[in-house]
C-alpha cells in the first residue's frame, strides 16, 4: 500500500492541497474510489481514499453528520474534494471532521480528471505489491512465511539473526537501539561496534540531502573491512530508522540481499500499522470524551466499554480534570505549544507507574482522565510534579490543573468531570502557581457557589460589598480589604505587606468600615467578606463575558 503523503508526492497529484487532517497523512491507502452518491459507506471495506466533486454532498447537517460518521466507522484514509463547479471550497463540517479524527481532507481543482489521480495511485500500489512478492519469492519458503506472519520488531530481528548467523539491530531516527538479536554462540559489545559506524551512516544520508539525491532503501555496505551492512528504513521520504547487520566476517550473498530488503519492507509496514492503531485509539478517546462532556447522562453505561477498548489499566480509583490557562488567553496560541503540552502529559502518564489514562483536546478543552492505584497523597504529589512540568513546557500560557474528586468506579467519571468543571470559575482568578486545584479541597466552595450562575454570583457580591469599593476610585480600598482578609486582619502584617504606614492603613480601614457599614472586627462581617472574595472569580468572569 501507499500512504496519503506518498500519494501526494506522485507527479499526477501535484495540484492537490491538504486542507485539514495533516496528522493522518501517514494513513495507508488501500485503494482510491470516486463517488457521487451519499450512501457510499455501504460499499467500503476501510482504507479507501474517496474522491468527490460534491455534486451529491448533503446540504442538511443531520445527513452530513451521518455520512461522516459512516466514513469514520470504516476508517477511510482521506477525502478529496474537486472544487470549482458544485463546490467552491471543502465543506466546513468535513474540514472539522478531518482535523478532529486525523483523516486528511484534500482539495483539487475541478479540471483535474479523477481518472488521472486514481490511475497514478493504483499503479503505485500495484507496483509495490509486485515488488514485495518478488522479494518474498526469492526467500526460503519457511523464512518468508515466518517473517510474513510476525507483527513484532524483535521477532524480525531474531529470525534474521538466526538465519544469517550474525547480530541484527534495529535503531530509530536518533540512532537509539530499539531491538537487537545476537546468536547464542556470539559474544559482542553492540554499543562499541555501532558507535564508529553511525557517523558513517549519517554522513551518507547527509551527502544525499546535500546533493539532492534520493536516499536508497537498499542494502548498503557501511564497513567493507568488518562486513557490516545497513538498510535505511524510510517512510514518506524521512528516515525512520535503520536495520543493521553487524560484523559477520563475510559478504552477503545474492540470496541474502532480498531477505534484508523484504524484512525492511515488513518493518516499515509495522510502523505504519502502529501509527494507524494510534489513530484508532485516539478516535476511541474522543468518543469517550464526547460521552463524558456532551452526554453525561449516558456516560455511565458507555464508560466501561470505552475504557476496556482503550486497554487502560484497571486502577482502583478514577478522576477527571481539566488544564486551564491564563484568563486572558483561551489556551496555547500555537499548535506546536498545544502538541508540546499533550506530549508532556502523555509522557507523565507513561512514566508514572501507578497511573494510566489520557490527556486529549476536545472542543478546545484539555481534558484529563486518570486511573490509578495506591495512595491518594502520593498521586496528588505526582500531579504536582505534572503541574511543574507543564509550567516549564508552556510558561507563556501559565496552565494549571483542575481536578474533580476521586471516584471508586469508572462509571462515576462524569461526576468527577462535573466537579472539575464547576471548580473552574472558582479558581480562575487565583494564582496559577498554586495549582493543581483539587475539588476535594474546595467542597465548601462547591456546595455554596457551585450551582451559582455567573450573573447570580455578581449580584451576591454586589449585595455584600458597596459599589464604591468596586469602582476605580475605590480600587485601593478594595485591595487593602483583600490583603487584610488574606492575613486574617492582622494590621501590622498588612501594613508591611502593602509597604504603607500604620496610620495610612488605619485611615483606609476607617473608610472601608464607613462604606460597608460594619466593623472589620465583627466575625459576621468577616464571614460575608470571605464570601464576597470567594465570589470574585465568578463575578469577574461574568464581567469578562459581558465585554466579549
Automatic annotation (TrEMBL):
Record family assignment: Belongs to the CdaR family.
Domain Purine catabolism PurC-like: 6-125
UniProt xrefs under Gene3D superfamilies: 3.30.450.40, PucR C-terminal helix-turn-helix domain
Alphabetical list of InterPro entries matching this protein: CdaR-like_regulators, CdaR_GGDEF, GAF-like_dom_sf, PucR_C-HTH_dom, PucR_C-HTH_sf, PucR_dom
Annotated ranges, domain PucR C-terminal helix-turn-helix: 478-533
CdaR GGDEF-like domain ranges (all copies): 336-422
UniProt name for this protein: PucR family transcriptional regulator ligand-binding domain-containing protein
Amino acid at each position: 500500500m501507499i500512504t496519503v503523503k506518498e500519494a501526494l508526492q506522485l507527479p499526477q497529484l501535484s495540484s492537490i492541497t491538504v486542507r485539514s487532517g495533516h496528522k493522518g497523512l501517514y494513513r495507508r491507502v488501500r485503494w482510491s474510489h470516486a463517488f457521487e452518491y451519499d450512501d457510499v459507506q455501504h460499499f467500503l471495506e476501510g482504507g479507501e481514499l474517496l474522491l468527490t466533486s460534491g455534486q451529491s454532498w448533503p446540504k442538511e447537517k443531520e445527513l452530513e453528520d451521518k455520512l461522516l460518521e459512516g466514513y469514520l466507522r470504516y476508517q477511510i484514509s482521506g477525502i478529496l474534494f474537486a472544487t470549482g463547479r458544485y463546490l467552491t471550497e471543502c465543506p466546513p463540517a468535513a474540514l472539522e471532521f478531518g482535523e478532529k479524527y486525523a483523516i486528511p481532507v484534500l482539495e483539487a481543482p475541478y479540471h483535474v480528471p479523477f481518472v488521472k489521480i486514481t490511475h497514478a495511485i493504483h499503479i503505485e500500489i500495484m507496483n509495490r505489491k509486485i515488488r514485495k512478492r518478488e522479494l518474498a519469492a526469492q526467500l526460503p519458503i519457511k523464512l518468508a512465511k515466518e517473517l510474513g506472519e510476525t507483527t513484532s520488531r524483535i521477532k524480525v530481528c531474531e529470525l534474521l539473526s538466526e538465519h544469517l548467523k550474525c547480530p541484527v539491530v534495529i535503531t530509530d531516527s536518533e540512532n537509539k537501539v530499539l531491538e537487537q538479536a545476537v546468536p547464542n554462540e556470539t559474544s559482542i559489545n553492540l554499543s562499541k561496534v555501532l558507535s564508529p559506524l553511525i557517523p558513517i551512516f549519517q554522513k551518507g544520508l547527509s551527502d544525499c540531502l546535500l546533493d539532492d539525491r534520493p536516499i536508497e532503501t537498499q542494502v548498503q555496505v557501511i564497513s567493507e573491512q568488518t562486513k557490516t551492512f545497513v538498510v535505511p528504513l524510510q517512510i514518506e521520504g524521512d528516515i525512520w530508522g535503520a536495520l543493521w547487520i553487524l560484523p559477520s566476517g563475510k559478504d552477503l550473498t545474492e540470496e541474502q540481499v532480498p531477505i534484508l530488503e523484504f524484512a525492511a519492507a515488513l518493518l516499515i509496514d509495522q510502523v505504519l500499522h502502529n501509527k494507524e492503531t494510534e489513530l484508532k485509539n485516539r478516535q476511541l478517546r474522543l468518543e469517550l470524551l464526547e460521552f463524558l462532556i456532551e452526554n453525561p447522562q449516558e456516560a455511565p453505561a458507555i464508560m466501561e466499554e470505552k475504557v476496556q477498548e482503550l486497554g487502560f489499566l484497571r486502577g482502583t480509583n478514577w478522576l477527571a480534570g481539566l488544564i486551564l490557562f491564563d484568563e486572558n488567553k483561551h489556551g496555547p496560541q500555537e499548535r506546536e505549544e498545544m502538541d508540546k503540552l499533550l506530549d508532556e502529559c502523555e509522557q507523565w502518564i507513561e512514566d508514572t507507574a501507578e497511573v494510566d489514562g489520557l490527556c486529549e483536546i476536545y472542543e478546545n478543552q484539555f481534558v484529563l482522565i486518570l486511573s490509578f492505584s495506591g495512595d491518594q497523597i502520593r498521586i496528588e504529589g505526582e500531579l504536582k510534579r505534572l503541574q511543574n512540568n507543564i509550567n516549564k513546557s508552556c510558561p507563556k500560557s501559565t496552565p494549571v490543573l483542575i481536578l474533580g474528586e476521586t471516584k471508586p468506579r469508572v462509571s462515576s467519571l462524569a461526576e468527577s468531570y462535573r466537579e472539575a468543571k464547576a471548580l473552574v470559575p472558582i479558581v480562575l482568578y487565583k494564582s496559577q502557581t498554586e495549582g493543581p486545584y483539587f475539588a476535594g479541597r474546595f467542597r465548601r466552595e462547591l456546595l455554596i457557589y457551585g450551582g451559582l450562575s455567573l450573573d447570580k454570583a455578581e449580584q451576591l457580591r454586589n449585595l455584600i460589598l458597596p459599589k464604591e469599593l468596586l469602582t476605580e476610585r475605590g480600587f485601593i480600598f478594595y485591595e487593602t480589604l483583600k490583603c487584610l482578609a488574606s492575613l486574617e486582619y492582622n494590621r501590622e502584617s498588612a501594613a508591611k505587606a502593602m509597604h504603607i504606614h500604620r496610620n495610612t492603613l488605619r485611615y483606609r480601614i476607617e473608610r472601608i468600615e464607613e462604606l460597608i457599614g460594619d466593623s472589620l472586627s465583627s466575625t459576621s462581617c468577616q464571614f460575608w467578606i470571605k464570601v464576597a472574595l470567594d465570589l470574585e472569580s465568578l463575578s469577574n468572569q461574568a464581567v469578562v463575558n459581558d465585554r466579549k
